[in-house]
Design brief:
Elements: H1 13-35, H2 39-48, E1 59-63, H3 69-77, E2 82-87, H4 90-102, E3 109-113, E4 126-132, H5 141-151, E5 152-163, H6 171-191, H7 196-205, H8 211-219, E6 223-230, E7 235-241
Parallel strand pairs: 1-2, 1-4, 2-3, 4-5
Antiparallel strand pairs: 5-7, 6-7
The structure holds S-adenosylmethionine (SAM).
Length: 242
């Protein structure tokens, strides 16, 4: 069954996801930090540390970039690379552009509208393609992974950061209680969107995590695909090479 934010009949998942992120964009970054107690920055840093060594001026594409959190952190970590971020939500991108300008990074980060399932970039352009908490929201995950594969250069890498379901007792049960009940409650009050943070929980439940996602990467053509478990299984980093 397809999980959509608002479950409206006749509306595509993509349209609902875009609306949801446009709506919550003003509080998105604040809630990320609050609900993860700031750990999201550590997860992103770990993912970024896996960007392969590449010549100066190489380009990294961050799909589903949202407000550009990963691209900004990446540009600060790697002054020698350029970052392109793309997303379907103009609301998220607009906030991202302000953040990029405030940090004086406008010449090294470009945030552009774009659908990850149909990327507007030539094949083999990027040394690395990243996605943080984005692929779970794709309407067609396989199409998105194929497109990411297409735009990575031979020898380049895909790095995906995504929520997973913890497997270890009793952390699994404790985290599940927080993720299913407490997080949506706080999210609803602050974002004023009744569904966004319940959708987060539901979409993680049906996401093909761990070995199943590695299988998806292999199916899209990536070699040496693997996953790294973070924070007892709340999150995983998935990597693969073209
Ligand atoms: C949870 S946010 C993650 C944002 C950012 N990567 C981060 O780490 O904070 C998910 C983002 O995926 C975007 N998204 C969902 N489906 C997309 C698609 N098909 N193409 C591009 N962006 C998409 C949404 O608009 C949203 O900004």
């Amino acid at each position: 069954m397809e999980i959509k934010p608002y479950s409206r009949e006749g509306e595509s998942k993509k349209a609902e996801v875009r609306q949801m992120f446009d709506r919550i964009s003003p509080v998105y970054d604040f809630l990320n930090g609050l609900l993860s107690l700031g750990i999201d920055r550590i997860w992103r840093r770990k993912a970024l540390s896996l960007i392969p060594d590449s010549p100066e001026g190489s380009e990294v594409l961050d799909v589903a970039t949202g407000t550009g959190a990963l691209a900004i952190q990446g540009a600060e970590m790697y002054p020698q690379y350029r970052f392109v971020g793309s997303d379907i939500s103009e609301g998220m991108l607009e906030i991202g552009r302000v953040r990029v300008a405030k940090r004086g990074l406008s010449d090294r980060i470009s945030l552009e509208p774009g659908d990850s399932e149909n990327l507007n970039y030539e094949s083999n352009r990027f040394v690395c393609v990243t996605a943080a908490f984005g692929v779970r929201n794709f309407e067609n995950l396989d199409a998105g992974l194929s497109e990411m594969y297409r735009v990575i250069c031979p020898g380049g890498r895909i790095i995906i950061l995504e929520f997973s379901r913890p497997r270890i007792f009793p952390f699994k049960q404790l985290f599940n209680f927080y993720f299913r009940f407490i997080l949506p409650f706080i999210g609803r009050i602050i974002s004023k969107d009744a569904r966004a943070y319940s959708y987060l929980y539901e979409s993680v439940q049906q996401f093909p995590d761990y070995e199943r996602f590695v299988g998806k990467l292999t199916g899209a053509g990536f070699k040496n695909s693997r996953f790294i478990v973070l924070s007892l299984g709340i999150c995983c980093i998935y990597t693969g090479e073209k």
